[in-house]
Design a protein that fits this description.
The structure holds two protein chains of two kinds. By secondary structure, chain A is an all-alpha fold. Chain A has 18 helices and two strands. In chain A, strands 1-2 form a two-stranded antiparallel sheet. In chain A, helix 4 packs antiparallel against helix 8 and helix 12 packs antiparallel against helix 13. Chain B is α/β, with parallel strands linked by helices. The radius of gyration of chain B is 25 Å and the shape is globular. The chains are: A mainly alpha, B alpha/beta.
Chain lengths: 384, 446
């Protein structure tokens, strides 16, 4: 290859195009040969060639970037293979899987944490998305601005600036969120009492989850023993293992823009006549929402649930962004995919990491299949 | 038709898998021999650096690289800048692909992590090939694996204890930096202030690495070494079941509780501020909150800050009343440049390293960072002219212990952070913490 990087790039691009054309032609020709061998008409052979020729770039991309890595990861999952090894992977059979399922307490902790995000974070995320969609569905001034504003977090993603802003906002002492909580709690004592109750309940729940991951409930006993929080207590967002999961949930809720748009589309698809008829019959707005809109939104809720579930079970980015340089909090917030990343790219255990990825895939598959099985009980497609 | 699709896809998938399975993904190490002729001709030497200052990069690009390219006609030097955040993922990619930069930036404990995949540079940088190698101090040990040189160290950045003497004296503490565990706990109790209105710290007696938990694994190791602790027993097994390990863990908990109170108090951390935590805010005249800082020099105020009149620099003294083997320690971290085994330009990489880390080069490189050069003969000029660096260099020479030689360092870090996190929440007792680390780390080393 020439040393000039620009010529290098051009040559690489040209070779890539040639490769795609060549393999596409090869695939088309192979398909045509098969049809010919099976006695297909010339027209059928021609059509088959054209079909495979044009579909080939995607098929080849799929094979190279999906099928082959899948096959390799499956093979590696049965080996002891580390990136830094200079020798070939050692075949260890089912050892990685057995260790992962029976002995690895870290993986068990990551499953429990992921369960937390799924049970607590996902419903909150969907609830807020639905609430925003219902609010934005009221025809009002500045509706587009609000839509854009609520969708903006999806566009922004989890970059360094976002991380910094969230960390500043979540600082225990001077963060804006705790400042607001303090200010409201001081000026309205009743709200202060509710906040403290919420802190107590939150810490009990989180101590329980941490207890499951650790195999002992010392912390839960301590939280209960300490009793109702003092008047000056505020959440210890990115400081305490008892609170480390909540900022992740907040980030999930903050990024609910896509779900919101889907709900909004669903609300717009509900025939207006149904609402008007109910209104004429004297139904209140709550009754109209609960008896008409909500059931008719169920396909959209189901879609968001499935997509949200899969994405929550694979949650990685918010944890990486918030805690990658706050190591002491990682164990209390770690998710299955973060654990996979840690084993694969931090400990360089590619074989073990591959086994984790396959177990995660099976978990997601089972949960998704269960959801699909259960949809008949609550999803209404009648109106569509 | 559908059957055909399945057939074609299956054939291609099987072919793809067979072909890929046949192809090796890892490079087999080759016997390294140093060429006798200087390398010239078209080539690109790729260097991957992490988190250097703009001044460093500017100096490399304007002085070192042009000089190198002039001496090696046809060779181009390409510097890529990365960050310590996420470096491991990037480096994994290089090693997995067997292709990447010819020189990579590593930290001191990473020689054991990557050692097997790094080139034996003895033929290029050993004493026989380059007599100047003898000028490198103990930091060179961190750039070795299996007794062979794998690259060259750039600087030493030890962890010192910086203390604000003005705040200490104003608070009636006249004996200087605490000298043992009891003094430290007493000091933490006296000089940590919690604002009752916000239930958060407004002054923290000691800010170690990770101010919030006060239980970072690197800080733990520093304290452990100061007691004379050894990380491994003679048979190579971990030594976390030693009295030193237990005392260190108990000290972590005592300091944390003396600073933040019991975990149930749920006290908030120091506010996030501008500049070093032991500096003073120019605009408000208020202190940033820390009385002492156990950290590298880069976390301390810039050398030209007036606050240095009131800052002392000391080692961590250990706990001689309870552990007679105690020794003052500054834990030495290094950045070093390694040559991966996959590099096709080992001679060029060695030549570039020799140039950039010559006596003058190392001095200049470290001047742009305000750190101590790894080469002994480069410790002139700014090193001796700055009273702070002079003191730091003296302490490093006298009490320096390398943060190196840690087997499975990434795993140990994960194991320790997990266990120490449970110490500060009081989920586990110090005894349970060391037992957990001992068990899990022993398992990791098998």
């Amino acid at each position: 290859m020439p040393d000039n990087p620009y010529i290098n790039l051009l040559v690489t691009a040209a070779l890539t195009v040639l490769f795609i054309i060549g393999t596409s032609y090869g695939l088309g020709a192979l398909a045509r040969a098969i049809v010919r061998a099976r006695g297909g008409t010339p027209k059928h052979q021609q059509n088959t060639f054209a079909g495979y020729f044009f579909a080939a770039p995607w098929i080849i991309g799929f094979l190279i970037f999906v099928a082959v890595p899948l096959g390799l990861s499956l093979y590696w999952s049965f080996t002891d293979y580390r990136v830094t090894f200079t020798h070939a992977p050692n075949w260890v059979g089912l050892e990685n899987y057995i260790h992962l399922i029976t002995k690895d307490s870290g993986f068990r902790a990551s499953i429990v944490n992921t369960l937390y995000y799924t049970i607590i974070g996902l419903p909150l995320q969907m609830g807020v998305a639905l609430l925003l969609a219902v609010l934005l569905n009221q025809k009002m001034k500045g509706e587009r601005v609000f839509r854009m504003a609520f969708y903006l977090p999806v566009v922004l993603g989890f970059n360094a600036a976002v991380l910094l802003v969230w960390r500043l906002m979540l600082n225990t002492g001077t963060g804006i969120i705790n400042q607001i909580i303090r200010s409201i709690s001081t000026s309205v004592p009743a709200i202060g009492y509710v906040v403290r109750a919420e802190i107590y309940v939150h810490e009990v729940i989180n101590a329980f989850f941490l207890g499951i991951t650790n195999g002992n409930f010392n912390l839960l006993h301590k939280v209960i023993e300490t009793g109702f929080p003092a008047a000056n207590r505020v959440p210890l967002w990115v400081q305490s293992p008892l609170w480390s999961k909540m900022p992740i949930v907040l980030l999930m809720v903050w990024g609910c823009g896509t779900m919101m748009l889907i709900f909004l589309a669903g609300l717009n698809n509900i025939p207006r006549e149904l609402q008007e008829a109910a209104e004429v019959d004297g139904a209140s707005s709550w009754q109209r929402f609960w008896k008409i809109s909500f059931p008719l939104l169920s396909p959209y809720i189901f879609y968001n649930l499935i997509v949200g579930l899969i994405s929550t079970l694979q949650i990685f980015e918010p944890i990486y962004v918030l805690y990658r340089d706050n190591q002491p909090l990682v164990p209390s917030a770690i998710s299955m995919v973060y654990y996979l990343w840690q084993k694969t790219f931090s400990h360089f255990e590619i074989g073990y990491g591959s086994a984790i990825s396959w177990v995660i895939m099976i978990i997601i598959l089972i949960i998704t299949l269960i959801q699909f099985r259960l949809q008949n009980r609550w999803v209404t497609y009648d109106i569509y | 038709m559908r059957k055909n699709i399945y057939l074609v896809l299956s054939v291609l998938m099987v072919l793809g898998l067979i072909l890929t399975a046949c192809g090796g993904t890892t490079a087999t190490p080759t016997e390294t021999t140093a060429p006798t002729e200087p390398v010239t001709g078209p080539a690109t030497l790729k260097i991957y650096l992490l988190d250097y200052t703009p001044a460093t990069i500017e100096w490399l690009k304007s002085e070192i690289n042009p000089a190198f390219e002039a001496a090696h006609p046809g060779v181009t030097v390409e510097i890529t800048e990365g960050t310590w955040s996420g470096w491991d993922t990037t480096f994994s990619g290089f090693f997995a692909a067997g292709e990447g930069p010819d020189i990579i930036n590593l930290g001191s404990e990473m020689n054991t992590l990557y050692g097997e995949s790094l080139a034996d540079m003895d033929p290029y940088l050993g004493e026989a090939a380059w007599p100047e190698i003898t000028n490198f101090g103990p930091a060179l040990e961190n750039a070795k694996y299996d007794g062979k040189i794998r690259g060259l160290p750039i600087f030493t950045a030890p962890r010192y204890v910086f203390c604000r003497t003005d705040i200490m004296e104003a608070g009636g503490w006249t004996t200087g930096t605490p000298k043992n565990f009891a003094e430290w706990v007493d000091f933490a109790d006296k000089f940590s202030i919690v604002d009752p209105a916000t239930n958060s710290l407004v002054q923290q007696a000691l800010v170690p690495v990770d101010a919030a938990s006060m239980a970072d694994w690197q800080w733990w190791l520093l304290v452990f070494y100061s007691l004379g602790g050894e990380l491994y027993k003679e048979d190579g097994t971990p030594n976390f079941d030693s009295p030193e390990a237990l005392a260190t863990t108990q000290f972590m908990l005592d300091m944390r509780q003396a600073t933040y109170g019991p975990a149930s108090d749920a006290v908030g951390t120091l506010p996030t501020g501008q500049g070093s935590v032991i500096d003073r805010d120019d605009a408000t005249g208020k202190d940033n909150g820390a009385v002492c800082l156990a950290h590298s020099g880069w976390a301390a105020p810039a050398f030209d800050r007036p606050i240095w009149e009131s800052i002392s620099i000391d080692p961590f003294y250990g706990d001689s009343p309870n552990f007679p083997e105690s020794q003052p320690v500054v834990l030495g971290f290094n950045d070093w440049l390694a040559v991966p085994e996959y590099s096709q330009n080992k001679q060029l990489a060695a030549d570039w390293l020799k140039l950039a880390l010559s006596k003058e080069g190392d001095n200049k490189w470290c001047e742009t960072m305000g750190l101590i050069p790894a080469r002994n003969d480069s410790q002139y000029g700014f090193v001796v002219e700055s009273p702070q660096l002079k003191r730091e260099a003296e302490l490093a020479a006298q009490y320096g212990i390398g943060f190196a030689g840690i087997k499975e360092s990434a795993k140990l870090s994960t194991i320790m952070q997990d266990a120490l996190g449970k110490l500060i929440t009081e989920e586990l007792t110090p005894e349970e913490v060391v037992a957990k680390i001992q068990e899990e780390y022993s398992d990791a080393l098998k």
